[in-house]
């Protein structure tokens, strides 16, 4: 006898059929199981009305009708062809129902409702006003199913004899079952036992009701006397079933087209009294005429412990079915409504306290047989008894303490993985983010693409990997100078800032936790432009000295208490337009003196201190044109302090060698580069001779003059830095004992760090983003971690920026790379096989892509631009043809295609090949969807509301395979094995209907029908990972208009019943998930486009 098969024919489609109702062609396996599940659910809804009426206080009036006719069918049915019209049955469930109760106890629906069996005799038709609790038959009036077990075990014909008057043509189907049963059935069953299972699975010729239909209706009837004719068959059938081993505990599914959520609050006990055919795959439920995509639907997710698979004994030999037995008792665990009118109820099966189903024979096991512990076996019992007695005291104590702790461990579930997100600044309008190792060390770095800035920022990983960038502290208006000193003698470095436009200084006291107290302002002279500090009155308190450019004075502000200052300043008249002031012991009397530059006079004034806040008469020395900055040190090794003045106007420096008595020789002039502006002194080459470094503003460079120790210097060595360098500082940023440099580049809002190689050379600069118009910089260990940090004064936005050092010559800041083109997406990979990470960017407006080759130091070589002849707006990287070289897939939203560029492994690519998609493709993911070890593609199409799957040929070419439905305006797609079945699934963010779609893969490039979950407004990106460390996959969703991120926690049974929201800033967008700090937990980074902020969510689950 051939297996019965159902087949639906798909209607003809237009060229674009993505928006039409999907019609699924199913083979015998899915259809047969679906037919029985559908039939059982219709029976549960329609046929159980008699039981439901017992719960009603007022029973409806019954009407009597007579109908001896056979209910007609528009389809022809035979034993060899099984066809089930789900559409008629589904429509029936949504109509008002009438139930026909036959005199002999059989029940059928009327002709308008069903076509199940021949009706004869008087019928009683009952109007039904509502259907509720179809699946929740937990009535206390239901008696256990026990009496059948006392019946003798008969052959199948004998066991079915009492049913001949109930089931149409039963003997024919009994013989059919016996004929199909092999002589030696599997699982140790007899021929009659195996045939009894087979008979249960056979579908009767329509319109007659099948055995399973009538049996399950009768099992759901509270009157157990009506079950008596089935006792002999039940005895044989259940004898067979309990011999079949239980499958391991697993999740199975059933569904109904009703909203039953109100009937199943968490904690509710539920009992199913009939045999229940379930599926482990949602494919069986995907037919649009069963659950469909609209209307009220309830999906039951059951954690089953004693299901049996009956495929080996089924009439349909390809059927994958899990059968649950009558009396299956469950507890509602949770509810979830992932989409409109879709309700998922999570049930967990438990062994009931009382017997609901008697085992069919002595020694039979309805539930999995418990394994006997090894210690209960006889040969171990006696010696172990002694050991237990000797150990009992320790066991009691240990169990009380240990179990209390263990209970806490077992009950703990992390529900808030990211309680303390941290924020960092980005460039303007960040649009893409990737992670990787850009510095060739064991850290995870980030790259951020900034659309408006035309830049890529590299954020290097550090010990914490929270990607903290600069911390900003507000000052008063137009800060322009900074000085470091420990003002309150707490061992921490504090900051003094001069604010030019509001005639004040700001004092920021260090907190020892990477932060500063709010600034305190003190009034000084007009337009303060330079500041220094020291103890000028020998009271052990730090005082402040300020040059005021607009009133030709130097102000002395005396320290009042620890870190505070007097409101009274002492003003000293100096030359015209004092612009820079320094302090030192010029006459070797251990009392602080000071010197100031007078820019209009082209002079300097020197004031020798008396140690009581008073000073000797000023000495005046001529220097070069437009002097701008100054430093002091012993440059000729005579133990006397010398002065160096930078002359901006004549591109020179003036060196005034000290005599040791507070006076200085006439200047010696040295030519340097164009427009020198700032100067520092240090021994850069470790030869015990002091050297100089100067910023050369108009050359966008610095010059290093190595000292000879004999009152002369070598010619400057030039190093390129940023635009208009305006300030610099010398310090050891990588703890190697050599002095490095940091330079503020006011023309491009960056600063540069140059690491000293120790052989009179410096490495290429590493640039970091600063505030607006950085004009001054300094360095110190501000957070007391023995690593030098950088502080930058930003005149344009009235702030100072603190960037903490990593101790390796890098800072926790943004390292921007300026781009020629406006880029809008980005991916990372090694495109020239040099083991250094590179970047590829798409330039939609320019019809091109940009390649940035990494140096291994967090910087990049000059960009390479390739024309694409399309407008790529999204890119992914993968080896598509298995040649060990990375290739590119470009998404071209404006011409409805993707382009594949095969890499040559030498930073070049072959000519692109274009493949058609649907309307307005938005993203693509590469994975193996049909398990042939060849990369495939899945493309979301924003305009067509679908996903196009393209199967790879293994050589970089693809063929369009099928189109999948998703939500409205799909924006982003990922692939991940959500249910740990080693098959890749898809998750899609749908901008238009505020949902995500989950499509579970089947391993053959097909997917189950989407499960949609409502999320917050405009989900733009999705990520997946085990975010709460429970070994179950979760999903994170970025809500663009809801300004947050949601984490949907997986239950491990392909559902997501709980979620947690995390606020972000304006318009969160691109995001990545990875273990950034390498603690074994998944972290998340989210960009916020409008606020230019990066959120780092480090996972804090234990």
Give the arrangement of secondary structure elements:
Elements: H1 28-47, H2 49-53, E1 62-66, H3 86-93, E2 97-102, E3 107-109, E4 122-128, H4 156-160, H5 170-180, H6 191-201, H7 211-219, H8 231-243, E5 250-256, E6 269-272, E7 276-278, E8 297-304, E9 308-309, E10 322-324, E11 328-339, E12 342-349, H9 378-411, E13 422-425, E14 430-436, E15 445-450, E16 455-459, E17 471-474, E18 479-485, E19 494-499, E20 504-508, E21 520-523, E22 528-534, E23 543-548, E24 553-561, E25 564-573, E26 578-584, E27 593-598, E28 603-607, E29 619-622, E30 627-633, E31 642-647, E32 652-656, E33 668-671, E34 676-682, E35 691-696, E36 701-705, E37 717-720, E38 725-731, E39 740-745, E40 750-754, E41 766-769, E42 774-780, E43 789-794, E44 799-803, E45 814-818, E46 825-829, E47 838-843, E48 848-852, E49 864-867, E50 872-878, E51 887-892, E52 897-901, E53 913-916, E54 921-927, E55 936-941, E56 946-952, E57 958-965, E58 970-976, E59 985-990, E60 995-999, E61 1011-1014, E62 1019-1025, E63 1034-1039, E64 1044-1050, E65 1056-1063, E66 1068-1074, E67 1083-1088, E68 1093-1097
Parallel strand pairs: 8-12
Antiparallel strand pairs: 1-4, 2-3, 2-4, 5-8, 6-11, 7-10, 9-10, 11-12, 13-68, 14-15, 15-16, 16-45, 17-44, 18-19, 19-20, 20-21, 22-23, 23-24, 24-25, 26-27, 27-28, 28-29, 30-31, 31-32, 32-33, 34-35, 35-36, 36-37, 38-39, 39-40, 40-41, 42-43, 43-44, 46-47, 47-48, 48-49, 50-51, 51-52, 52-53, 54-55, ...
Helix pairs in contact: 1-3, 1-7, 5-6, 6-8
């Amino acid at each position: 006898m051939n297996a019965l098969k159902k087949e639906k024919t798909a209607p003809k489609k237009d060229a674009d059929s993505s928006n039409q109702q999907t019609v699924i062609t199913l083979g015998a396996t899915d259809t047969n199981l679906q037919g029985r599940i559908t039939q059982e659910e219709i029976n549960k809804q329609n046929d159980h009305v008699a039981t439901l009426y017992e719960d009603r206080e007022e029973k409806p009036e019954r009407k009597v009708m007579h109908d001896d006719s056979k209910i007609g069918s528009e389809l022809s049915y035979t034993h060899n062809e099984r066809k089930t019209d789900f559409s008629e049955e589904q429509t029936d469930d949504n109509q008002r129902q009438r139930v026909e109760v036959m005199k002999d106890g059989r029940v059928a629906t009327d002709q308008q409702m069903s076509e199940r069996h021949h009706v004869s005799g008087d019928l009683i038709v009952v109007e039904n006003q509502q259907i509720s609790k179809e699946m929740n038959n937990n009535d206390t009036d239901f008696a256990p199913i026990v009496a059948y077990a006392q019946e003798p075990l008969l052959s199948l014909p004998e066991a079915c004899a009492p049913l001949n008057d109930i089931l149409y043509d039963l003997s024919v189907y009994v013989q059919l079952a016996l004929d199909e049963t092999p002589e030696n059935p599997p699982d140790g069953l007899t021929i009659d036992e195996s045939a009894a299972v087979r008979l249960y699975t056979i579908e009767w010729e329509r319109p007659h009701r099948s055995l399973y239909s009538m049996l399950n209706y009768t099992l759901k009837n509270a009157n157990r006397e009506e079950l008596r004719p089935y006792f002999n068959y039940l005895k044989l059938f259940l004898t067979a079933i309990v011999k079949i081993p239980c499958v391991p505990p697993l999740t199975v599914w059933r569904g109904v087209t009703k909203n039953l959520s109100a009937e199943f609050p968490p904690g509710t006990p539920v009992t199913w009294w009939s045999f229940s055919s379930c599926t482990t795959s949602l494919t069986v439920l995907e037919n649009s005429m069963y659950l469909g995509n609209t209307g009220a639907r309830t999906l039951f997710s059951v954690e089953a412990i004693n299901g049996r698979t009956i495929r080996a004994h089924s009439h349909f030999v390809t059927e994958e079915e899990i059968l649950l037995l009558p009396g299956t008792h469950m507890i509602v665990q949770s509810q979830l409504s992932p989409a409109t009118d879709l309700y998922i109820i999570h049930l967990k099966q438990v062994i009931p306290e009382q017997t609901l189903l008697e085992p069919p024979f002595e020694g039979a096991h309805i539930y999995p047989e418990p394994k006997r512990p090894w210690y209960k076996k006889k040969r171990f019992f006696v010696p172990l008894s002694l050991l237990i007695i000797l150990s009992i005291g320790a066991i009691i104590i240990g169990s009380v303490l240990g179990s209390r702790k263990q209970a806490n461990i077992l009950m703990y579930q992390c529900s808030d993985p990211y309680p303390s997100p941290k924020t960092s600044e980005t460039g303007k309008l960040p649009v893409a983010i990737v992670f990787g190792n850009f510095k060739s060390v064991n850290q995870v770095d980030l790259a951020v693409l900034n659309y408006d800035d035309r830049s890529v920022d590299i954020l290097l990983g550090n010990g914490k990997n929270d990607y903290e960038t600069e911390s900003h502290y507000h000052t008063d208006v137009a800060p322009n100078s900074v000085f470091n000193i420990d003002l309150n003698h707490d061992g921490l470095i504090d900051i003094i800032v001069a604010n030019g436009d509001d005639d004040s200084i700001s004092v920021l006291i260090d907190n020892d936790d990477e932060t500063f107290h709010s600034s305190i302002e003190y009034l000084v002279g007009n337009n303060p432009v330079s500041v220094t500090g020291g103890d000028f009155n020998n009271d052990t308190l730090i005082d402040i000295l300020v040059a005021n450019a607009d009133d030709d004075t130097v102000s002395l502000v005396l320290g009042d208490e620890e870190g505070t200052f007097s409101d009274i300043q002492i003003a000293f008249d100096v030359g015209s337009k004092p612009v820079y002031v320094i302090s030192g012991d010029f006459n070797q009397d251990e009392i602080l003196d000071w010197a100031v530059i007078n820019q209009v006079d082209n002079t300097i004034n020197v004031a020798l201190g008396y140690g009581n806040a008073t000073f000797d008469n000023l000495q005046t020395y001529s220097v070069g044109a437009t002097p701008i900055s100054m430093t002091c040190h012993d440059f000729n090794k005579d133990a006397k302090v010398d002065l160096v003045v930078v002359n901006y106007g004549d591109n020179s420096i003036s060196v005034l060698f000290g005599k040791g008595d507070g006076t200085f020789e006439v200047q010696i002039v040295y030519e340097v580069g164009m427009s020198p502006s700032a100067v520092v002194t240090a021994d850069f080459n470790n030869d015990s001779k002091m050297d100089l470094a100067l910023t050369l503003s108009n050359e966008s460079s610095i010059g290093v003059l190595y000292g000879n120790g004999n009152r002369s210097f070598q010619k400057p060595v030039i190093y390129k830095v940023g635009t208009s360098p305006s300030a610099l500082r010398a310090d050891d940023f990588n703890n190697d004992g050599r002095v490095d440099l940091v330079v503020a580049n006011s023309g491009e809002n960056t600063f540069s760090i140059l690491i000293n190689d120790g052989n009179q050379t410096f490495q290429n600069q590493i640039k970091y983003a600063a505030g607006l118009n950085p004009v001054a910089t300094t360095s110190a260990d501000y957070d007391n971690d023995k690593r030098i940090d950088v502080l930058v004064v930003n005149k344009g936005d009235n702030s100072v920026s603190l960037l903490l050092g990593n101790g390796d010559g890098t800072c926790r800041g943004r390292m921007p790379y300026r781009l020629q083109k406006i880029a809008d997406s980005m991916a990372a990979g090694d495109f020239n096989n040099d083991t250094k990470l590179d970047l590829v960017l798409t330039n939609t407006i320019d019809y091109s892509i940009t390649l940035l080759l990494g140096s291994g130091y967090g910087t990049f070589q000059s960009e390479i631009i390739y024309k694409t002849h399309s407008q790529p707006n999204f890119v992914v990287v993968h080896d598509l043809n298995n040649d060990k070289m990375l290739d590119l897939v470009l998404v071209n939203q404006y011409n409805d295609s993707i382009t594949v560029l095969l890499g040559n492994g030498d930073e070049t690519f072959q000519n692109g090949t274009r493949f058609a998609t649907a309307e307005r493709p938005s993203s693509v993911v590469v994975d193996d969807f049909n398990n042939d070890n060849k990369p495939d593609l899945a493309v979301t199409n924003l305009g067509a509301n679908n996903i196009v799957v393209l199967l790879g040929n293994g050589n970089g070419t693809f063929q369009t395979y099928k189109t999948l439905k998703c939500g409205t305006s799909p924006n982003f797609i990922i692939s991940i094995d959500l249910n740990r079945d080693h098959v890749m699934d898809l998750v899609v963010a749908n901008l238009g209907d505020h949902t995500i779609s989950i499509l579970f893969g089947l391993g053959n490039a097909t997917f189950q029908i989407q499960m949609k979950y409502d999320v917050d407004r405009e989900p733009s990106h999705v990520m997946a990972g085990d975010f709460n460390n429970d070994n179950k996959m979760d999903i994170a969703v970025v809500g663009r208009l809801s300004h947050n991120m949601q984490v949907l926690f997986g239950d491990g049974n392909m559902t997501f019943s709980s979620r947690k929201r995390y606020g972000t800033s304006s318009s969160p967008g691109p995001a990545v998930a990875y273990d950034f700090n390498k603690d074994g937990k998944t972290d998340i980074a989210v960009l916020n486009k409008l606020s230019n902020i990066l959120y780092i969510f480090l996972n804090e689950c234990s």
